Amino acid sequence: MTAIEDVLSSELKWSSPRERHQISRMFAEKGFPGCVGLIDGTLIELLQRPRFDGETYYDRKANYSINAQIVCDHRRKITFLYCGLPGSVQDVSAARRSTLWKYLERDESVIFGREEYLLGDSGYIPMPHLVPAFKVSAANCEKSDFNNCLAHARVINEHCIGVLKSRWHSLKQLRTQLKSDGAVEHDPTPNENPTATGLGAGQSGTSLCNRVMENALRICRQHGGFLNRQRRMQDNNGVFHAP
Prior knowledge:
GO molecular function, one term: metal ion binding
Subcellular location: Nucleus
Pfam families: DDE_Tnp_4 (PF13359)
Protein name: DDE Tnp4 domain-containing protein
GO cellular component, one term: nucleus
Oligomer: single chain
C-alpha cells in the first residue's frame, strides 16, 4: 500500500478543465458528449485470507480479494483510484466510501464542469455526474440500444484495467498479508481555484441519464451501423449479445 500511496501523490492527477474538454470531444464521437471519464470496479485477488475479518474479503468469484474503483479517460489514463475495501463489497458501495462520491452526488461540483459526467455499468446508480447502464431486459429496445452504445464506450476502461494488471503482475494476486482494513485513495480535488460550474439547480441524476440516452441514441443512429450490427447479432429469443 505504501508504494500505491507514493504513486497517488506524485502521478495520479484529476483532469483539468482543458483536459476534460478534450476528453468530452473524444467521447462525443462515440455518442457521449460531456463524458469526461469511465468508472469501473475490479477485484485484486489475495494469496492469503486476511488475518482480521477475513470472511468479508471472500468475493463472488470464490477468492479473497480487495475492491478497487478506477476512473480513466479516453486514452486509458487513470485519473482516480480508490482501493482497499473487502472484495465482498459491491462497486456502488465501494464508490460511496470514496472522496469522488461526494462530488458525483452534488449538483454543484469543483471537479466537474457543466453537464460533465462519468459513464459506469449497471452496478452504479444515476447521479448528477454519473450515468450508468440501465438494468433492463432486451425486450426494452431503446434502453438495450443505449446499453450497447455505452458498453462500446466502456470497453476502454476494461482495457485499462487489463493493461494495469498485465503491467504489474502482483495485482493479479497480492502475496502480502493484510494487517489492517485501511483503504487508499486519491483526492481528486484540484489544487487551483476551480472555474467550472455544475449542472445547475434542479438537475437530477435521472434527468441527466435520460438526456444522455437521447443524445447517444441519436448520434449512434446517425453515424454508424454499430446498432444495426448489434441487432444482426440478435438470436432467435431476441437476446442481445454483448459487443
